[in-house]
Amino acid sequence: MKFYKRTRNSYWCHSKVFSWMLPDAQPFTYDMLKEQIATGIDRTPKLERVIDKFQDIVMSPLDLIYSIKIHIKNSKGSTHVLSGGLEKGQWYDLTYRIPVCLFTELEKFIEQEKGLQVHQWEMNLRYSEEYGIDSNNPKYGKLTEQAIAAIEQNEIYLWWKANKDKADGCCSEEYEKEEQEMLIRLVKIYRSLWT
Question: How far apart are CA 77 and CA 172, in angstroms?
Answer without folding.
Answer: 36
